[in-house]
Every structure is written in C-alpha cells, then in structure tokens.
Design a protein that fits this description.
The complex is a heterodimer of chains A (110) and B (120). Helix content of chain A is 0%, strand content 45%. Chain A has no helices and nine strands. In chain A, strands 1, 3, 4, 7, 8 and 9 form a six-stranded mixed β-sheet that branches. In chain A, strands 2-6-5 form a three-stranded antiparallel β-sheet, with no helix packed on it. With 120 residues, chain B is mostly beta strands. Helix content of chain B is 0%, strand content 50%. In chain B, strands 2, 4, 5, 6, 9, 10 and 11 form a seven-stranded mixed β-sheet that branches. In chain B, strands 1-3-8-7 form a four-stranded antiparallel β-sheet, with no helix packed on it. Chain B is globular. Classes of the chains: A mainly beta (110), B mainly beta (120). At the A-B interface, β3, β7 and β8 of A face β5 and β10 of B.
C-alpha cells in the first residue's frame, strides 16, 4: 500500500491528452514539492517533472504538472506511442521523515 | 556526463549481509544529497534511505531501520548501503539516486541499479 495514491493504469490514443492523478495528504503533497518520474521496462526512472510543475531541460513541453492542496496531476498532451511507460509521483513526507512514492501508473497508448 | 554506477548486488541467504556501493562521476558529488530507492520485481518504487550532502543527516524507511546503514565518502565520490539481517522482502533492484523525493532542485538522476536477491 503506497502512501501516495495513483490509478494503476491509464490509456489514450495518439494525439489525445491524458492525465494521471496522485493523491496524498497534508504531510506529504500538501507540504512538499511533487516530482514525477517516467520509467520504461528494464531501465532506471527518469525525472519528468520537479517542484510540482517544472520540466528539466530536454523534457518535451507536452508533459506538464500541477498541484492543488493534497493532490497532484501529470498531464500528457499530444500523446505519442513512445510515451507508453510507467509513471510515478513522489514527495517528501514530514510525518514519516522520508520519501514517498505513488504505486505507479502504467500508461498504454492504444 | 553524470554517471552513477551501482555494484555489490547478488544472491544472499536470509539473515545475511550485503554492501552496495555507488560510484559517482560527472558532477560535484559532495554538493548533493543522495538516496537509495528500490524496486521489487514487478512492483513500484520504494524510497529506502537518504543522506545529506555532508552526511550530517540520514533518514530511513521504517522497514529497514536498524538493519540498513547509508554512508558516503565525499573524497572518493562514493555512496554505500550496508544491509544486514536481510529478508526475502528486501529482494529488489536497488537504485542509487542523486537528490531525494520532493526535492525542488530538479537535479534528480538515477543509476541503472543493482539486483539484490534474498533467498530463504
């Protein structure tokens, strides 16, 4: 049972806009920056969004992040087949004094 | 180019010990906090431990407290994870990661991971 809650799966067709939610509490998302990671099978996760809505250099602007209260979202617009991957949200939890991740969302491009 | 290369994984019996290492290059290691994150086969990511840039603060997930110890050697650009009293549920790929979950710096970077398998 992950501290942050994500839907296990999401899907969309090429060109569509897809959003992935991440729900937490006041001790983590409500009081911490949220980061999002993208992971392809057999590879290490890669930072996609940091500080709720910032993109590292090299990440396409099709990817965007937002946060409101104790929930965060990752949006992918203009969906492409190469976006098919697992996506994880993460934050710091002040009550646990540690990092927390969502359970991950497997994105399928139909 | 930033590189994080983990080593030390392998097969170990339940109750045994293992020491993971992470060799860092391509950035000023002594300026960054570091973490270990693991991923059990077919499962999601789990943060394991964090160490501040100067080693003055360390935090662990509850399930490894008292069994795992994170450390660093800034002179050797090296991060370590000493794992004792290993259990089957510690079986996972262990990633060395620059920075920590929830960081605002945007500098997170992960190594390719090393597999730890604990047999009963």
């Amino acid at each position: 049972q992950s501290v942050l809650t994500q839907p296990p799966s999401a899907s969309g067709t090429p060109g569509q806009r897809v959003t992935i939610s991440c729900s937490g509490s006041s001790s983590n998302i409500g009081n911490s920056a949220v980061n999002w990671y993208q992971q392809f099978p057999g590879t290490a996760p890669k930072l996609l969004i940091y500080s709720d809505n910032q993109r590292p250099s090299g990440v396409p602007d099709r990817f965007s992040g937002s946060k409101s209260g104790t929930s965060a979202s990752l949006a992918i617009s203009g969906l492409q087949s190469e976006d098919e991957a697992d996506y994880y949200c993460s934050a710091w939890d002040d009550s646990l004094n540690g990092g927390v991740f969502g359970g991950g969302t497997k994105l399928t491009v139909l | 180019e930033v590189q994080l290369v983990e080593s030390g994984g392998g097969l170990v019996q339940s109750g045994g010990s293992l020491r993971l290492s992470c060799a860092a290059s391509g950035f000023r290691f002594r300026s960054y906090a570091m973490s270990w994150v693991r991923q059990a086969p077919g499962k999601g990511l789990e943060w394991v431990a964090y160490i501040k840039y100067d080693g003055s603060e360390k935090y662990y997930v509850d399930s490894v407290k008292g069994r795992f110890t994170i450390s660093r050697d800034n002179a050797k650009n090296s991060l370590s994870l000493q794992m004792n009293s290993l259990r089957a549920e510690d079986t996972a790929v262990y990633y060395c990661a620059r920075d920590r979950p929830g960081s605002t710096s945007g500098t997170s970077y992960w190594g390719q991971g090393t597999l730890v398998t604990v047999t009963s």
